[in-house]
Each structure stands twice: as structure tokens, then as C-alpha cells.
Design brief:
about 160 residues, mainly beta, five-stranded mixed β-sheet, two-stranded antiparallel sheet, about 5% helix
Length: about 160
């Protein structure tokens, strides 16, 4: 099977088979509903939440036997009143935990820093993700996501790095 063959019904912009992406599941202490951007994790009554990001790196493959993104998507699941992902990736190692901040191309580690502190939990092993399932998600998701987003440059200054547990 050619895992890099083109997709017949693409919906997500800026992705193709063979690309590597990092998916973030954001958890917030604010009692808010899911929505687009990190702003959905805040509210008028909760402007500085405790936040945690669960992250997984995936290589996108055109293979229906790979992980189906629908198995990991938000599906209205609530635990103790808080909105949750249906499931988090399994079998990709014990997550590495560290303190950091939000990501995104508008932060540059010199003079435009993120105002939010985040506890990160990143799984150490890459997984295969069926790109067709991701395109299906891009057609209709509560987060209004339809494209891969850029990341900020790597933080290389040791004074800005936290210890890895």
C-alpha cells in the first residue's frame, strides 16, 4: 500500500500524506464550552486558568488501519462538568511533562511572550494518523479548525527552559 497517495476529498488546508503534525488537547480549569482559539479556555470570570496541554505527534498516512481521529475527537463528553476529549492517544509512551507557555507563530521568545503558563504532557513516540479521518474532522468541528497552524521557533535559551520530569 502507498501511504503517501493523494487524498480524494481533502478538507484540511496545508496538509498532505507524509506530513508530520502535533495535535494539542487543551484542558482548562475554567468552566467553559469548547470553541475556536485559546480564548475558548477563558471567560469573564476566569481570565487566568490552570491549563494543561496533552500533545501527540502524528505522521499523516493514507491508511484506514492507522489511528482514526474520530476516536480522539471531542464528542460532547463531560467529566465532572468539564468538557473533555473522547480519548487521548494510547501506546505512545509515558508523556514527558514540563512547564511552558502557549505556542503559536506570533510569539518569538524575545519580546513577544505568551501570557499564559501551561503544563505540557507530550507523548514521546510518534503515531500514524489516517489523514482521511482528519479531513472528515476538518469538515465539521466545534473548534473551527480547517488548517495546520504554524509553531513558534524552538526555545533554545537555557534560562527559558524548565526541567523535564
Amino acid at each position: 500500500m502507498n501511504y503517501n497517495q493523494p487524498v480524494s476529498l481533502p478538507a484540511c488546508k496545508n496538509i498532505k500524506p507524509g506530513d508530520t503534525i502535533e495535535v494539542h488537547w487543551v484542558y482548562t480549569s475554567c468552566n467553559v464550552g469548547p470553541g475556536p482559539t485559546l480564548g475558548a479556555c477563558l471567560s469573564e470570570n476566569c481570565a487566568n486558568p490552570a491549563a494543561r496541554v496533552e500533545a501527540q505527534v502524528f505522521v499523516l498516512v493514507n491508511d484506514t488501519t492507522a489511528t482514526d481521529f474520530a476516536d480522539l475527537d471531542y464528542a460532547g463528553t463531560r467529566i465532572n462538568g468539564y468538557h473533555q476529549a473522547k480519548a487521548l492517544p494510547q501506546g505512545t509512551g509515558q508523556p514527558v511533562e514540563y512547564l511552558g507557555s502557549t505556542t503559536g507563530p506570533r510569539y518569538n521568545n524575545q519580546n513577544t511572550c505568551s501570557p499564559y503558563q501551561i503544563t505540557w504532557r507530550v507523548r514521546p513516540t510518534c503515531a500514524r494518523l489516517d489523514i482521511n479521518s482528519l479531513h472528515a474532522w476538518c469538515r465539521n468541528n466545534v473548534f473551527d479548525e480547517d488548517h495546520a497552524q504554524g509553531g513558534r521557533p524552538l526555545v533554545e535559551d537555557p534560562a527559558l527552559l524548565s526541567e523535564i520530569n
